[in-house]
Amino acid sequence: MLSDILMITVSVKDRTPELMQKLQAAVEQFVVKGAAYIEGELVKESAGKKTGRSYPRGKEAVHTASAPGESPANDSSNLYGSIQIISENSLEAKIGTVVEYAVYLEYGASAPATRKVKKTGEAVMGPHMGGMKPRPLWAKTAAESLPTLENMLEAEVRKANR
Q: How far is Cα 72 from Cα 95, in angstroms, rounded to an integer?
């Protein structure tokens, strides 16, 4: 008879829906925190020292531009002040700018090697007339932030699983 036999019962309570809900909340929290982190890192780049060409700005100020390969120098705060987070849903956030010249700074730009001076009609050349080499900000920040973002996601998932 079965009642006379010793048994050990192994059973699992299905907590999949509860765990999935916790995981969803953790990932949503990560998206918010991760986007804010990236935005902060992008803006932080504006304070970095630049080694490009220096030239007068106004009566006493001197502006130092970024050299090729450096993130863009902060001249008017237009670029860095325009960085914003757009969340289309709880699992995605985009960090971007609508400043038109940002793409030229990021990837560089080609231009004619010479231009004519309006007053004289004379053709002139300058280092800026042959185009511009990239001043990466977005790709560089994304690559440098990846380890931190991975740690942030892992921490949110661990916290949700407590």
A: 17
Q: pTM of the full predicted structure?
A: 0.79
pLDDT digit string (tens) for 13-36? 999 999 999 999 999 999 999 999
Distance CA 90, CA 25 (A): 9
Number of independent structural domains in the chain: 1
For residue 110, what pLDDT band results from cuts at 50, 70 and 90? confident
Alpha carbons 114 and 126: distance in angstroms, whole number: 7
CA distance 110 to 10: 69
Residues listed for the chain: 162
Confidence of residue 97 (pLDDT cuts 50, 70, 90): very high
Let me know if residue 70 belongs to a domain: yes
The H or E element containing residue 94 is strand 92-96
Is 108 a member of any domain? no
Please check whether residue 71 is in contact with residue 99, taking contact to mean a CB–CB distance below 8 angstroms.
Answer: no
